[in-house]
Automatic annotation (TrEMBL), chains A, B, C, D, E, F:
A Pfam family: CMD
Record-given protein name: Carboxymuconolactone decarboxylase family protein
Domain Carboxymuconolactone decarboxylase-like: 43-123
PANTHER family membership: CARBOXYMUCONOLACTONE DECARBOXYLASE-LIKE DOMAIN-CONTAINING PROTEIN, SI:CH211-175M2.5
SUPFAM superfamilies xref list: AhpD-like
Amino acid sequence: MATVSLITDDDASADVLDVFNEIRAVRGTNYVNNFWRALAHDPALLRATWDRLKTVMAPGALNPMVKEMLYVAVSTVNGCEYCVHSHTAAAKAKGMTDEMYGELLAVIGMASQTNALATGLQVPVDEIFEV
Amino acid sequence: MATVSLITDDDASADVLDVFNEIRAVRGTNYVNNFWRALAHDPALLRATWDRLKTVMAPGALNPMVKEMLYVAVSTVNGCEYCVHSHTAAAKAKGMTDEMYGELLAVIGMASQTNALATGLQVPVDEIFEV
Amino acid sequence: MATVSLITDDDASADVLDVFNEIRAVRGTNYVNNFWRALAHDPALLRATWDRLKTVMAPGALNPMVKEMLYVAVSTVNGCEYCVHSHTAAAKAKGMTDEMYGELLAVIGMASQTNALATGLQVPVDEIFEV
Amino acid sequence: MATVSLITDDDASADVLDVFNEIRAVRGTNYVNNFWRALAHDPALLRATWDRLKTVMAPGALNPMVKEMLYVAVSTVNGCEYCVHSHTAAAKAKGMTDEMYGELLAVIGMASQTNALATGLQVPVDEIFEV
Amino acid sequence: MATVSLITDDDASADVLDVFNEIRAVRGTNYVNNFWRALAHDPALLRATWDRLKTVMAPGALNPMVKEMLYVAVSTVNGCEYCVHSHTAAAKAKGMTDEMYGELLAVIGMASQTNALATGLQVPVDEIFEV
Amino acid sequence: MATVSLITDDDASADVLDVFNEIRAVRGTNYVNNFWRALAHDPALLRATWDRLKTVMAPGALNPMVKEMLYVAVSTVNGCEYCVHSHTAAAKAKGMTDEMYGELLAVIGMASQTNALATGLQVPVDEIFEV
């Protein structure tokens, strides 16, 4: 259960409904997922979060599938159950194959392991890595 | 300072030197960075870590530059100063442009923000995200 | 499910029941929440944790509502589902309005974002911030 | 050292200088801290981050000092050295007394401890905490 | 629900079944837990993870029970619900008494608290701790 | 630099000096490390933290060396540079050999890796792990 109720379309103010409808239009689906329905309790936070997400996740120098895989990596380390599920689904929808997914998990696991070793050993940064 | 001294080539056992030389060969440089020189205090751990890293980071369904960017994302969230430096340098060496780097940072920041919001709100996972 | 069973009043030793009854008296409710009932498997840990919590969360230079909001912030970043729920409920009970809650979430999200950016960029601390 | 050089006013593009000058105006100081000078490598990320920060940290239902203390709490748990320093300085500048600072640290420490205990015990959320 | 289905023995390829059977032999039980059944979607990742785990957790200078307690400590701080459950069960199976478990939790809680205090205060490392 | 100055014996109040002297007596050394000198800005927090630490780290069902290794594990995952250094030194002083240290690091690395994999895959907890 969320700490707040989920706002349905019927409960939504005009400002909230505007964001819900933009989400529908950008994603080409009628479904608005729970994250936005919870966030809708604060319409200004909903609007700011959606506007920024839309910009950040748009195609750019990195393609949307790679961005979703990065999102999965961050969400995994932050231990966000909701975000792991939603962005793994999004990455798959944008073309992530089973083989890519296996490699994504392998890199996340490897990095988490060497992060722990480098921190445990307090390894000093090599000068050649400095700008 | 590390919690252990850094093993130089002169101090290295034959087993350790074998790993150092493989690192040199695979990376095409004579430089062996501090992480491996600290880890060399435990030759078995050094060998296992290097063997696995070499496999995980090799070209596959994901290209090495994307893998390095994923590594930067994980290292940032884990707060590993050493790994942020070493893998940002590696990503740049493998072709990450300034524009890609800006987008990488933007995704890491965005994901960290919505991870916190989803966890703070304890948003329940939508059924459509379940397998 | 917890890794231990939850200790009911009927199962509780005299030492454990003393703590349960203090919790009831301080909070003005007959309800003792699951955290204490799980911790009760180790009466000394239960006593030490409750004694310290009671002191730390008492009114002081900061009021109890602000302390609960700080608790929510820490619990969110640590990813503690139980604590997010219990301390969000406590903050509301101590006067946190919907508007305050929205601002609390916005600050947690913003801080998590710039924390990630500062760590990803490894920004050096300005001298003016040093004591 | 940062992973990028710090942009001075002389190096700054017009867009970047606009943000630097807004920071100066809002904060009533000529000093622009390193975080913004590092972020300036990506002018769009700089602009978006500053615009959002300015809004989130403005006086609202919570006063700016409380917001800075929340920022310190989040930054501490995320292990962001830079942010701990900059926001502790900001909280002091906005009125945090030594006594408040001691209580802030005590709450952060207490919450981190019980977060660990609740997660280690996997305590189930009480129904009364559910919305 | 996992992000992938759990591979049963009937669905398993020969490579996967080999790992499952090694797990059974090493642990002296017919039961293969969900972690391995999820990981089995990537047979190479399954094989590499199992081979390494088997080596790391074998008796050595530290006994297996102590290793499991260390695993619980790491899993708790990383907020891994699955791993907290599986390794707490493993530690108990290898001899962890109720008293040891209470002390394990007390140390995890204490360390999390002083970690937060040392990071919040940004305490500089004493020279006597340096190698 | 810490966010506060370090309290010397000359600057210390009688209450603070009492704690410093207890630390000296319990540890059998005249040296009081920086953590306590920073914490001394809040005498009540100093006293409460020391009293609890002294109890938690005393010999019990687990020996002090094992407790220090658990402390290193927690501190590593929490990314606390100060605590990694101080508790690695303490573990060595209490008998941790090089071989034990290598195994400690290997377990921390392994656990961090499988924590990430289990969270990334969102593996459901097996019923047999439930109490």
